[in-house]
Amino acid sequence: MTFSLGEVEALSRKAARGAGLSWGMAEEAGKTVRSLCHWGLPGAHALARYLSNTKHTSGPTDPTAPVWSTSGLLCPLICNALMSDMGTATPCKRIERLGWPILLVPFGACSIRLAWGETEVNWDGTLHIAGDCLTPFADVVTITHGTFPVGRPCVKSWRAEITEQDFTTLSRLAAHTYAPETEASKRTGAGAGLTDKD
After folding, report:
1. DSSP assignment, residue 4?
2. Which of 94, 98, 59 is closest to 78 using CA atoms?
3. Among the listed residues 114, 137, 120, 108, the one whose alpha carbon sits nearest the alpha carbon of residue 50
4. pLDDT digits (tens, 9 = 90+) for 27-44
5. Please, what's the b/e burial string for 132-169 (b: 16 or more CB within 10 A of its CB; e: otherwise)?
6. How far apart are the C-alpha atoms of 52 and 55, rounded to whole Å?
7. Please, are residues 107 and 81 in contact by the beta-carbon 8 Å criterion?
8. Residue 9: exposure state from Cβ atoms within 10 A (0-12, 13-18, ≥19)
9. What pTM was computed for the model?
């Protein structure tokens, strides 16, 4: 299944909100997935898998420290937002116990190298990836500033590929943001109603 980048951003935003994230973090989720899909990466898959575990994640205990950690699993969306806000001024050099590190990749627009396990993601105006970026957990992610054109270059895409399973998961979560249908709303014609004449 393919969708426009705008469609996948909207679906991801609603799914994140439906999973219990704040509207601000839901906006970040939508932008993150859009950016990943723009580079041909499975952002929707990572978000769909990640959202089933959001209750176990949080932000870093001390965002001003060079090592970010917490008592549980770090949220990649919170870390991505913090790093994007700080830009190259971020003090962070290492992130410990991060869920779905691919969701941190959009921060690479600040020209950095992210590395975890056998995976390396870096920027030189184009996104380069070495290894498997679609891992659900990283014990340690290291961050280095500069350009490191290593690995295969990603090719930009204007459409997002989403599997039927991931679409179903995101749609189910997004449905939690919709107002429940009532008999009164059906009678007064909310939505298409029972007599759609278009």
Report:
1. E
2. 59
3. 137
4. 999 999 999 999 999 999
5. ebebeebeebebeeeebeebeebeeeeebbbeeebbeb
6. 8
7. no
8. buried
9. 0.86
